[in-house]
Q: What sequence folds into this?
């Protein structure tokens, strides 16, 4: 994963929030340790008292109380630590979900969705075990081991040295195994993420997989990845399986040695029976904590691999990270240009050498302005020296062959990506200085792939304006040409849609997205081939609506159909990432070869198909009053425009 380093102390922050539960758990656990360590001493005194025929009832009662206290303390400690663990998982998931939702798209797109999912769901759960249960086990059982060792030293140092000698070799081997375990666990987490990512890819394109009869191929591919995860999982299992036996061998050896040497010393009278019993009890008490310490170290190492992956995801660069650093406050108005009268010469010196915004003819600034914008995805340049303005009202069409950069222009207006050069200006403000919420509150965006989500039709429509009034919803539905669709559904707006809006046709989904954008009441509406799936009646109705809407705000359409383009107040022709021409349909027909070819090629196609017969050529719209930055075409020569049909976006038209 190519993410920036995680914010320092993320894990510390998550655990600090749970410090009361964690501290409470550890303190109770320590009380339990004391109660455990005292027990052999009481037993030793019990044996001594019984040997001397003294009363033992008090000692027996004390021993019973210690046993019960031990059990109560250890279960309460387990509960507190477990609760802290669940809280840490919740906090980590909420934090990561926020990071992913606000991540910079360029960086997020480089991640595999399934891997992001695995990190958010699976790795956070493993992280909980590492940060709470296994750490608590290491601390508490470690205390039992240390405390027990001290008590054993007080009873008989030579027997202790014998024990440590047998256990030392086994412990060193266990530490070595635990180290290997961490590396193996990291590989296994990566492999699991890989499998998740591929599964997600297949599920997202299931109809394509079925249509291509690729189920078998995909199954084999998934099986290969599952096998890869199994192999690395097996390495983890082997190391895990070796950990306890290695330690057990050491423990068994030390038990045998202690019993042999201890009994011999009891026989010679150099060690008392009571002390030998207490020593042996400590050794037995040490067995399980010692094994648990090493198992917990193993689990902790596996959890650390998950912590590393969670940390990386938390380090995803965020879209509101400051990257420009020019010292101006977010949302600063330009030093000049605001308040200048329409027609004033642009004032120089705005931002980093970028000319000041040009006031729009209707007062105020243009709705959108591109100033010498250059942009590429990674090292691949897509836009170069792009400059144009979009007036505050009217319909602007963006045309060009496929891959010219039209959608990229929209994505830069939304600031999904930042330009490498130049500025995108929204209502006189460089969007580099606006928050994502400010930008997207002013811009409605209907994407090419008509995004709809699982939920009701109403939830989908009000998604960008959750508090919209019913009357506004009804108006947006009407304007988007969705009213008949809603009326025909038994549950109307409360009809439930499946994933990606399953339950609606492609054209209906497009109208839903238009309604969603309209309801937002934006200053600028971006339509990316929003009528591509509509039949000609629905498209004509939506065009009428857009004409009405364009009286109130700026409508920018990446136009698929020439009928939309013909009606546009201005047309921006993009060619290989550059603005080639700006003008009306008539002006461009007259003066721009590429535009003429784009328009007439489709007209000819439709004429051949006989579909153009009934389509009367619409009179070209009057040239826009707004001034156009960038190349401009000359006035129309009064020649007839091609009949409304579809404008090709294929490179063949060039
Ligand atoms: N996320 C991305 N990562 C890398 N390259 C991309 C990405 N999106 C688009 N491109 C590339 O950028 C170029 C412009 O793409 P864009 O989608 O803006 O073109 P377009 O004019 O809208 O095309 P179309 O009419 O086919 O939708 C294309 O060459 C495309 O391959």
A:
């Amino acid at each position: 994963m190519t993410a920036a380093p995680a914010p320092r102390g993320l894990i510390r922050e998550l655990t600090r929030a749970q410090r009361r539960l964690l501290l409470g758990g550890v303190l109770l656990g320590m009380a339990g340790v004391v109660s455990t360590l005292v027990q052999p001493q009481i037993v030793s005194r019990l044996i001594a008292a019984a040997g001397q025929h003294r009363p033992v009832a008090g000692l027996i009662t004390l021993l019973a109380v210690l046993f019960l206290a031990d059990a109560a303390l250890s279960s309460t400690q387990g509960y507190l630590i477990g609760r802290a663990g669940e809280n840490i998982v919740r906090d980590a998931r909420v934090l990561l979900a926020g990071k992913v939702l606000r991540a910079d798209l360029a960086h997020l797109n480089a991640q595999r969705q399934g891997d992001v999912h695995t990190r958010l769901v699976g790795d956070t759960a493993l992280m909980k075990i590492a940060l709470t249960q296994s750490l608590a086990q290491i601390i508490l059982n470690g205390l039992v081991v240390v405390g027990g060792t001290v008590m054993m030293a007080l009873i008989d140092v030579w027997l202790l040295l014998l024990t440590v000698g047998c256990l030392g070799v086994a412990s060193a081997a266990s530490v070595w195994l635990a180290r290997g375990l961490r590396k193996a666990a990291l590989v296994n987490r990566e492999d699991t993420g890989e499998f998740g990512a591929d599964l997600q890819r297949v599920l997202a394109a299931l109809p394509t997989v079925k249509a291509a009869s690729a189920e078998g191929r995909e199954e084999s591919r998934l099986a290969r990845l599952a096998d890869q995860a199994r192999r690395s999982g097996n390495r983890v299992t082997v190391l895990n399986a070796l950990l306890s036996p290695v330690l057990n061998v050491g423990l068994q050896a030390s038990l045998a040695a202690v019993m042999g040497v201890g009994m011999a010393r009891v026989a010679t009278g150099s060690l008392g029976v009571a002390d030998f019993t207490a020593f042996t009890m400590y050794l037995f008490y040490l067995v399980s904590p010692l094994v648990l310490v090493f198992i917990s170290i193993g689990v902790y190492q596996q959890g650390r691999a998950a912590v590393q992956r969670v940390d990386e995801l938390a380090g995803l660069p965020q879209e509101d990270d400051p990257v420009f650093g020019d010292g101006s406050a977010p949302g600063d108005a330009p030093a000049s240009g605001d308040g200048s009268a329409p027609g004033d010469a642009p004032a120089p010196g705005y931002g980093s050498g970028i000319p000041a915004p040009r006031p729009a003819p209707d007062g105020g600034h243009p709705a959108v302005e591109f100033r010498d914008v250059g942009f590429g995805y990674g090292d691949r340049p897509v836009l170069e020296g792009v400059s144009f303005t979009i007036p505050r009202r009217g319909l602007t069409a963006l045309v060009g062959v496929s891959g010219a950069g039209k959608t990229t222009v929209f994505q830069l207006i939304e600031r999904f990506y930042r330009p490498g050069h130049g500025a995108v200006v929204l209502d006189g403000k460089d969007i580099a200085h606006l928050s994502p919420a400010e930008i997207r509150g002013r811009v409605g965006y209907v994407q090419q792939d008509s995004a709809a989500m699982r939920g009701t039709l109403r939830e989908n429509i009000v998604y960008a304006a959750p508090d919209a009034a019913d009357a506004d919803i009804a108006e947006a539905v009407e304007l988007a040409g969705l009213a008949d669709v809603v009326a025909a559904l038994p549950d109307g707006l409360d009809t439930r849609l499946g994933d990606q809006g399953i339950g609606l046709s492609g054209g209906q989904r497009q109208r839903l997205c238009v309604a969603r954008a309209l309801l937002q009441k934006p200053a600028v509406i971006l339509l990316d081939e929003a009528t591509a799936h509509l039949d000609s009646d629905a498209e004509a109705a939506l065009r009428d609506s857009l004409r009405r809407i364009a009286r109130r705000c700026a409508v920018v359409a990446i136009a698929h159909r020439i009928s939309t383009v013909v009606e546009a107040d201005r047309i921006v022709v993009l060619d290989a990432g550059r603005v080639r021409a700006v003008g009306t349909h008539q002006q461009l027909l007259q003066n721009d070869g590429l535009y003429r070819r784009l328009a007439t090629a489709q007209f000819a196609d439709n004429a051949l198909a006989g579909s153009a017969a009934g389509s009367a050529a619409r009179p070209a719209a009057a040239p826009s009053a707004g001034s156009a930055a960038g190349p401009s075409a000359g006035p129309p020569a009064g020649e007839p425009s091609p009949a409304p049909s579809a404008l090709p976006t294929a490179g063949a038209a060039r």
Summary: The pocket of adenosine-5'-triphosphate is lined by residues 109, 377, 382, 400, 402-408, 649 (CB under 6 Å). Confidence is low (pLDDT under 50) at residues 2-8, 324-361, 606-654. The first helix runs from residue 10 to 16.
